[in-house]
Give the backbone structure.
Amino acid sequence: MNVQFITAVLISFFVIILSTEATVVRKCQGNNYKQLSDVDVTISNCKKGRCRLRKNTKVSIQMNIQPDHDVKKLRTSVSAVILGVPLPFIGVDGTSACNNLYEEDGVTKTQCPLKAGQKYVYKNAFDVLPVYPTIAALDVHWALTESDNKDLVCFEIPAKITT
């Protein structure tokens, strides 16, 4: 076999492996969101293992949701949990999630309220600020919370903040 053929096969193999890796998502403790196992969460530059959050970059997130009841309002709750202590992500924590909602196609913008049984796509992004400490192990806690402080959906991902 020639070297070019073997190189092409190896490159194709690694491209397939890298493109099929998914973001590691864990269900939040105490959260009973029924569709969580069906929720497709995508986080930019995040593969298996700890997500690498590089300082001075913007990280995007996309999540498919389907509420089992009508939802009037949603807010985003995002924090880094370090040694059990939640530290809010500045600029995204506590903001309205209603401004980041799309129809199932992921293109057509929509707003709250959400209808029970209808599929939606939530998209957001946050800056990894240079003031954030470099840390090798943390969990990012991400929730979409209703006005009664109940989470519609909640997940955690293992991450690290790097330079």
